[in-house]
């Protein structure tokens, strides 16, 4: 590290060792801009607020740990310990506030320009038992009156705290059964896990039916009311269309049963019979073919002729 610094320093050609360091040669201070007020005993440092304060200029709250460029000066001494004062400007307004050290109480004190937010803890407010020192123990052992007063005070505090201690002990006794509480909590967790799994399965089924991959949101009461108020046009379902298609495929191409086929054949025969009779009349009038051809056509169509009926009668 030292070698790097020594090799990277630039010494101008007109510098000589008798001129001192480079800072002396250039007429500058090693702290640069931080030492611009050093002739007045002011050093610029980075100061971090040790507690929360209220700015008296703008009334804004400035939290503990906010850093400022502060002017550090010596304000006095407490015995041989120096007292330093830090002056800084609020970053929200043009107000300046000052904070100085308090070596006697080992703390910081707001001098001007701001007010400290009172968050200090007092032993009396916490109602904790203070640990007695060696001098206190000696006084209790040697002074009977002090020991009596101390005992009366301790008894009064114990009587005042007895109901509260009893309530705390009762609450602890109620929650003493760890196995039962653990079993109850695990049962609750299992129920919640099943409900979440059922909901996830239902959402997955809806996503498959709708062919979507986006996650579904929680169902709300407004959505239920709006869905019930929505009406859709009546249409045929997919299952109904499939059923009708199966029925059509299972039917005959000639219609419904032999009755329809017979009616169709009879109608066709009647048309042909009319055309044949008209043709026979034309042939008889012109001396053409005999009526035997008509009988043959009737037999092909399954229509009984008059001669066959006479034969059957005879």
From TrEMBL:
- Biased composition, Low complexity: where in the chain? 304-314
Outline the segment boundaries, as ranges, of region: Disordered: 274-314
Give the record's GO CC terms: post-mRNA release spliceosomal complex; U2-type spliceosomal complex
Cross-referenced Pfam families: Saf4_Yju2 (PF04502)
Q: Which residues form a coiled coil?
A: none
Domain of life where this protein originates:
Eukaryota
Q: Name one GO biological process term.
A: mRNA splicing, via spliceosome
The UniProt similarity line reads: Belongs to the CWC16 family.
Q: Which PANTHER family match?
A: SPLICING FACTOR YJU2, SPLICING FACTOR YJU2B-RELATED
What is the protein's name according to its record?
Coiled-coil domain-containing protein 130
